[in-house]
Write a structure and sequence with these properties.
The chain is built from 8 helices and 6 strands; from the N terminus they run E-H-E-E-H-E-H-H-H-H-H-E-E-H. The protein is of the alpha+beta class. It has a 4-stranded mixed beta sheet. It has a two-stranded antiparallel ribbon with strand order 3-4. 35% of the residues are buried.
Length: 196
């Protein structure tokens, strides 16, 4: 089944959804197309300190509870990262057949280790670790050769009235926001039944 996912690396719900789809891909044959969609271009490269408002504390608790329900671990960093270079790096990794490894590496760097994924050196370390040529990745990130690809994803999202991430399209069935793995399983089963 064809699945399209609009995601961003600074979104904890996207991270949880990515882990859920990874688990479900062991059960279902899915052709997943990942489309990076930058939701906070205003965040600076060095990141922005998160507020400790009641709303942010409530969101943090909710994310951790969702993660625990599915047996996932997540640690929210104390800052909001700029994700643009990470998204461009993932497009570069696609051209080398290493998207999945880079994708997981960026999420883990941010949501497990608290590293700044807006920092080119963090991305180069991830790329080097998973087997990308460091010099080629650096050239792609510094030249911004994949900038337009992320812009194209944004335009596609807007044309399809996708206003936020994560958004999943299972066949032709759109799902907005993170769902527990069991809910995703039922959605996938339903989408497969409808397509037959």
């Amino acid at each position: 089944m064809k699945v399209t996912v609009f995601y961003d690396y600074n979104c904890p719900y996207c991270y949880l959804g990515s882990m859920s789809l990874n688990e479900l891909s062991k059960e279902f044959e899915m052709d997943i197309e990942w489309k990076g969609f930058e939701i906070h271009p205003e965040f600076p490269q060095e990141g922005r300190k998160r507020s400790k408002s009641m709303k942010s504390i409530k969101v943090s608790r909710g994310v951790k509870e969702m993660a625990l329900q599915d047996g996932f671990q997540i640690k929210l960093p104390g800052f909001a990262a700029n994700s643009r270079l990470g998204l461009e790096g993932s497009e570069f990794a696609k051209t080398k057949g290493l998207f999945k490894e880079f994708h997981e590496g960026v999420y883990e760097a941010y949501f497990k280790k608290g590293l700044n994924i807006g920092d080119i050196n963090t991305l180069l370390e991830i790329g080097s670790y998973i087997g990308l040529d460091k010099a080629e990745l650096e050239e792609a990130l510094r030249s911004r050769s994949l900038y337009q690809k992320i812009e194209d994803n944004r335009k596609e999202a807007q044309n399809n009235r996708i206003l936020g991430v994560p958004t999943y399209i299972f066949g032709k069935f759109p799902v907005h926001g993170y769902q527990p793995t069991e809910t995703f399983r039922k959605i996938i089963q339903r989408a497969i039944e409808r397509s037959q």
